[in-house]
Backbone:
């Protein structure tokens, strides 16, 4: 079978980098490569000669001109228009597990609007409604590791803790690769990890691997929203973003609205073992002044 020519928006990001390793000479697109996700002309030029586009561009907080409306909604519209101009036949979009309309969260609603635009585009597509993704360079293991190195306590979201199903980035990329190579045509699929557990369990596994005692305390959702706003204002990469607080307050285990289950051979099967956590653990110390936006 001929190797497909692939373009990846958000190609220098966490998932995009891992996906790019699976293909020969992919076209990597991001602000770092000089292309904005809502620049139709630049995208169309980048997509020339490509068979499919992996649309991985996304943000979990708004900063400066990078709004959810611009990146998720207008950006996806630009990707669709550019794909049509360039003769691209398929778009594979990375969305969020619980993206949906009319829920009061700009993040969730903008991701849903992007999904709908792709479903209505007339192009072949696969939409991956993915849960919490982890791996080297992620937010989950990275920030949890640094948090347990910095603080003796970890606050879970909500007085009644819900569950998550962390999915290894390599297994998520397995699904994206299969879709880009022709599977899962015109489908919206749920991608979650094999193990369902509370976030506090994830934190304890990370802390145990670091040899750090950690106290787990439940915190009201409003308090974590306040913390999210504070760290969005003050940190280069927030300790927790408001959108992430919303995700954890709802649980990150099941798609809403419902998405199709994956075929058995593509369903993630890896548990969150010590080996998996160790492979995703950054070589970084505790949080400090260098993490603040006022530092250079």
Residues:
């Amino acid at each position: 079978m001929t190797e497909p020519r692939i373009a990846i928006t958000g190609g220098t990001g966490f998932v995009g980098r891992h996906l790019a390793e699976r293909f020969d000479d992919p076209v990597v697109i991001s602000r770092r490569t000089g292309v904005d996700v809502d620049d139709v002309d630049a995208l169309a030029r980048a997509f020339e000669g490509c068979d499919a586009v992996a649309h991985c561009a996304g943000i979990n907080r708004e900063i400066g001109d990078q709004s959810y409306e611009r990146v998720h909604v207008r950006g996806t519209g630009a990707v669709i228009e550019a794909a049509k101009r360039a003769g691209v036949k398929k778009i594979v979009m990375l969305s969020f597990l619980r993206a949906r309309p009319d829920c009061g969260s700009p993040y969730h609603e903008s991701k849903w609007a992007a999904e709908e635009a792709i479903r209505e585009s007339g192009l072949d597509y696969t939409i991956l409604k993915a849960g919490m993704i982890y791996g080297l360079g992620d937010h989950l293991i990275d920030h949890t590791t640094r948090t347990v190195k910095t603080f003796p306590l970890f606050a879970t979201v909500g007085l009644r803790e819900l569950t998550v199903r962390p999915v290894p980035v390599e297994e998520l990329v397995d699904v994206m690769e299969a879709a880009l190579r022709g599977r899962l045509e015109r489908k919206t699929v749920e991608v979650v990890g094999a193990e369902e557990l509370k976030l506090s369990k994830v934190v304890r596994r990370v802390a145990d691997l670091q040899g750090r005692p950690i106290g787990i305390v439940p915190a009201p959702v409003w308090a974590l929203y306040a913390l999210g706003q504070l760290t969005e204002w003050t940190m280069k990469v927030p300790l927790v973003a408001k959108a992430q607080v919303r995700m954890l307050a709802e649980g990150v285990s099941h798609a809403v609205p419902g998405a199709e289950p994956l075929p058995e051979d593509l369903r993630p099967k890896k548990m969150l073992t010590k080996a998996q956590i160790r492979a995703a653990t950054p070589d970084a110390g505790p949080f400090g002044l260098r993490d603040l936006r006022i530092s250079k």
Notes: The chain has a mean pLDDT of 95. The domain at 6-197+234-291 is CATH 3.40.50.720 (Rossmann fold).
